[in-house]
Specification:
The chain is α/β, with parallel strands linked by helices and 138 residues long. The chain has seven helices and five strands; from the N terminus they run H-H-E-H-E-H-E-H-E-H-E-H. The chain has a five-stranded parallel β-sheet, with helices on both faces. The two termini are 23 Å apart.
Length: 138
């Protein structure tokens, strides 16, 4: 197989075929949790794991390729910013994807300053979420 064809096929392949992948989710709303899990499992990530809002616990999660953290900034934007700030302060560079309301421009700017990978404005489409996770985990 030509190298170009192999590269094109690898770009289209699910992440889980390329490397073990995990998405860690810190989301309180059970409907959001279910939607995120159904959007990512089966062909994009190997596992969706839930974590609480404890920065020390999250900072201990393995980072690196194939891992990302998904947070929401819907109910308490300040708590989300504090969590990302604490995770970075504790030395974890795991890619962070934040889902938040379209009115949260200030939060989006601050999240970018904290080196989060993506801020997705609600309503978030399935395609947007999957693309953000693919970028974060690659």
């Amino acid at each position: 197989m030509a190298p170009t064809v192999a590269l094109r096929q690898a770009k289209r392949a699910p992440l889980s075929n390329l490397m073990p992948t995990s998405a860690y989710v810190v989301v309180a709303d059970p409907h959001d949790r279910a939607w995120i899990a159904s959007a990512l499992t089966n062909d994009l990530v190997d596992s969706v794991r839930y974590a609480n809002h404890d920065a020390t616990q999250i900072a201990g999660l393995p980072g690196g390729p194939g891992r990302c953290l998904i947070l929401t900034a819907d109910s308490d934007e300040a708590a989300t910013l504090r969590l990302v700030r604490d995770i970075r302060r504790l030395g974890n560079e795991i890619p962070v994807i934040v889902l938040g309301p379209h009115s949260a421009f200030r939060v989006a700017v601050e999240i970018a300053r904290l080196q989060a990978t993506d801020f997705l404005e609600r309503p978030v489409s399935l395609r947007q979420l999957r693309s953000a996770v693919r970028r974060a985990c690659s």
